[in-house]
Design a protein that fits this description.
The protein is an alpha/beta fold. It has two domains: 7-221, Phosphoenolpyruvate-binding domains (TIM Barrel), CATH 3.20.20.60; 226-279. The protein is 46% helix and 16% strand. The protein is built from twelve helices and ten strands. An eight-stranded parallel β-barrel has the order 1-2-3-4-5-6-7-8, surrounded by five helices. Helix 11 packs across helix 12 (259-279). The protein is globular. The two termini are 18 Å apart. The model has no long low-confidence stretch (mean pLDDT 97). The protein binds ligand LIB3CWND and magnesium ion (MG). Ligand LIB3CWND binds next to strand 1, helix 1 and helix 7. Mg(2+) binds at residues 118, 144.
Length: 280
Amino acid sequence: MARPYRSVLYIPAANARAMEKARGLAADAIIFDLEDAVAPDAKPAARAALAEALAQDYGPRARIVRINALTSAWGEDDARACADLPADAVLIPKVDGPADLDRVAALIPDTPLWAMMETPLGMLNAAAIAAHPRLQGMVMGTNDLAKELGSRTRPDRLPMMAALGLCLLAAKAHGIVIVDGVFNAFKDEDGLRAECEQGRDMGFDGKTLIHPAQLDIANAAFAPTEDEIALARRQIEAFEAAGAQGQGVAVVDGRIVENLHVDTARQTLDRARAIAELAQ
Ligand SMILES: CC(C)(COP(=O)(O)OP(=O)(O)OC[C@H]1O[C@@H](n2cnc3c(N)ncnc32)[C@H](O)[C@@H]1OP(=O)(O)O)[C@@H](O)C(=O)NCCC(=O)NCCSC(=O)C[C@H](O)C(=O)O
Ligand SMILES: [Mg+2]
């Protein structure tokens, strides 16, 4: 992962004030939303406001534009507009299969594509979607998915686990970014922290967010802790020392360290370094 995606903040493209504010927020990435957060009557104005906003400097924050589906009245105009915008990725909603990506790819020749994973068919086709040559990221759309499944919202997210796991496997198999869904109760800090930690434990790269108050919690949850960084350094040192003695296994804190653990340790240090670079 060349850049961190711990915190990925949605901003309605109809909200010029919020788009301006985001230039100073601690978000690793921003999703400028033309889809669900923008009312039908406001879509053309939001597209124009987005073009103005993207002319501004967003620093190191990745700029992702979520268009409307091509099956909607606005999707094709959104996609054509995106072809000329300085966006780092275009996010396609409600992707059911690779053909949905092909259609957008034909309208946007250069910009990397990301997919919203939020339909039952999308879950069943996750591997084929992740394998698409233009796809670089997946975003879980847990609100739409819950609607489609008729599932209930639970703190442990048990009804979502099969879907989260399928998409995670698909993204990891193809080496693309995957970001967890939103936590709707944006004033519930403990609830958000618990859900971020669950997503981090599962292997997600970060979490999508709906309010600036959620940024610090996600940034902390998806960054390596000081203890993890220190352990990674000790594992690498111990493994190198063992190697110098002709041994392929070291022991740190009573646990074995083999070359695969050293790979993980190096990834932890790379991640910490990339996060530190963002802050400079
Ligand atoms: C949820 C909100 C409507 C709340 O807005 P508001 O009442 O204005 O909040 P505050 O007064 O607390 O705002 C304080 C300041 O922060 C700025 N702000 C608020 N939200 C954002 C934001 N997302 N990005 C940047 N800045 C933001 C306000 O402008 C205030 O600034 P200031 O004027 O300086 O005081 C609102 O937060 C909101 O609209 N959030 C985004 C909602 C959204 O994008 N929804 C769609 C994405 S979620 C989704 O679709 C999931 C997926 O598809 C699925 O299926 O699961
Ligand atoms: Mg959705």
